[in-house]
Every structure is written in structure tokens, then in C-alpha cells.
Specification:
The protein has helices spanning 2-13, 16-34, 49-67, 72-77, 79-84, 90-109, 114-122, 130-155, 161-183, 192-199, 201-209, 215-238. It is mainly alpha-helical. It is globular. The two termini are 19 Å apart.
Length: 239
């Protein structure tokens, strides 16, 4: 599994595309947080809420861009058949590609920790609520983990990287916000709307972001990741 993981990392950082994707992610976050309208200086108090509201939407583009070649490129070039000859199970191949992609996402997220230091230095009062900030970063990690599983699954359906990117983007958007949007339908008010919203990632992401780590939220994220692992495994079995 580690050999597949290292192969994914080498493939991503072997061209400028990988570096550009991470730089664009950090640049967009930095501009929105500190320079664009309604930046953090407009609030009058120390908060990273703007970042945690924006980051999921940017990750919807970043993660499919990272994973779109995971399986599609293997199918297109015929190297997946070579990969199958190695002493690896399908689970190890999926796990290696998943872990490699997730490490790249974490590399993109780690530099954002400088936002905490910057705001703490700029704050005139007590600064950030570190409990809520820590919870938000944990929520962002699990969100990235789910998006990675969804995007890799989408890559296993096709040998076209562009199609894999678009499918991953749509899949992440639907599961993140789709159920929340459906729950706002007037016919579902006063009861069913709550349970429909619970199916979506948005509900559990914001739950953890409040600083309270609930085992139900962790179980939800784990279940969604397992579900897309199973679908990916089934797709590879057909190959």
C-alpha cells in the first residue's frame, strides 16, 4: 500500500500542476480572508469563520483536481493491469491511492495554520476561541477525507481525467450541500427536514465545527468513506 501511496505523491508533484493547485488554494483563501470585501478585518473581532465557510467550496475543486488521475490515468495508459500483477489486494491499491491523495490535501491545509498565528497577533483582546477553531480544523480534515473518497470513486468510473474531475466536483457538491438544500423544501418542514439534512455532510461538518466532537458525526464520516471505498472496490472488480 505504501508503494502505491508514494507513487501517487511522486506523480502529483512531478509536474507544476500539483504545485499550482496548492498555491491557488492558498492564494484564494488568503485574498478572501484578508483583502476582498467582508474580510476578517470587517468583523471587528478575532474569528476564522470566514475561512471555514469558504474552505469546503474551494476543496470541492481542489480535491477532484488532485484525484482525477488516480484510476482514470491508470485505465487510459493500461498501467492498471501492470498494477494488478503486483502482490497487492484491491483494498491496498485503493487505500494507497486514497492515502496519497489525502496527504496532498493535508499539505495544502497545513500552511493555513498561519492564519491562526496572524489573527492572534493582530487581535487586541483574547483572540480566537481555540476550542472552536480546533474543532473546525478537525471538521475540515474529515470533510477533506470524505471528498477524497468520493473523488477517487468517481475516478474509478472512467478513463477520462476531465470527466473524473467533473464527476468528483458534482458528487462532492451534491453530498455536501444537496441534502441541506432539499431539507429547505416547504413540504418537508416541521420534522422530515431535520432528518434529510442529517444525511448531508454539511450538517455534520458544522456540528464538529462548533468544537464538540460527537461520536455520531465521526461514525457518519467513517460510514460515508467506507461506502465509497466499497463502490470503488466494486468498480475495480469489474475490471
Amino acid at each position: 500500500m505504501w508503494s502505491v501511496c508514494k507513487k501517487e505523491l511522486r506523480q502529483f508533484f512531478s509536474s507544476l500542476t500539483g504545485y499550482i493547485a496548492i498555491i491557488v488554494f492558498l492564494l484564494v483563501n488568503g485574498l478572501v480572508l484578508f483583502f476582498f470585501e467582508d474580510n476578517i478585518f470587517s468583523f471587528g473581532y478575532a474569528t476564522l469563520d470566514r475561512f471555514f465557510q469558504l474552505a469546503p467550496w474551494i476543496l470541492m475543486f481542489l480535491i477532484p483536481a488532485i484525484t482525477m488521475r488516480s484510476f482514470s490515468e491508470e485505465f487510459k495508459t493500461g498501467t492498471y493491469e501492470i498494477l494488478q500483477t503486483r502482490p497487492l489486494t484491491r483494498g491496498q491499491i485503493i487505500g494507497g491511492k486514497y492515502l496519497g491523495s489525502l496527504i496532498v490535501v493535508l499539505i495544502a491545509l497545513i500552511p493555513t495554520l498561519i492564519y491562526i498565528f496572524s489573527i492572534q497577533r493582530l487581535a487586541a483582546g483574547e483572540g480566537l476561541d481555540m476550542g472552536a477553531t480546533t474543532g473546525s480544523y478537525i471538521g475540515l480534515f474529515f470533510l477533506a477525507a470524505v471528498f477524497t473518497a468520493i473523488s477517487i470513486c468517481c475516478s474509478s468510473f472512467t478513463n477520462n481525467a476531465v470527466v473524473a474531475f467533473i464527476a468528483g466536483l458534482i458528487g462532492c457538491a451534491l453530498i455536501y450541500y444537496g441534502f441541506s438544500a432539499i431539507s429547505k423544501i416547504p413540504a418537508l418542514a416541521n420534522g422530515p427536514d431535520y432528518y434529510v439534512e442529517m444525511i448531508g455532510i454539511d450538517f455534520h461538518y458544522h456540528s464538529i465545527s462548533r468544537g464538540l466532537i460527537d461520536t455520531r458525526d465521526l461514525l457518519y464520516f467513517g460510514s460515508v468513506i467506507f461506502l465509497f471505498f466499497a463502490i470503488t472496490n466494486r468498480n475495480l472488480l469489474k475490471r
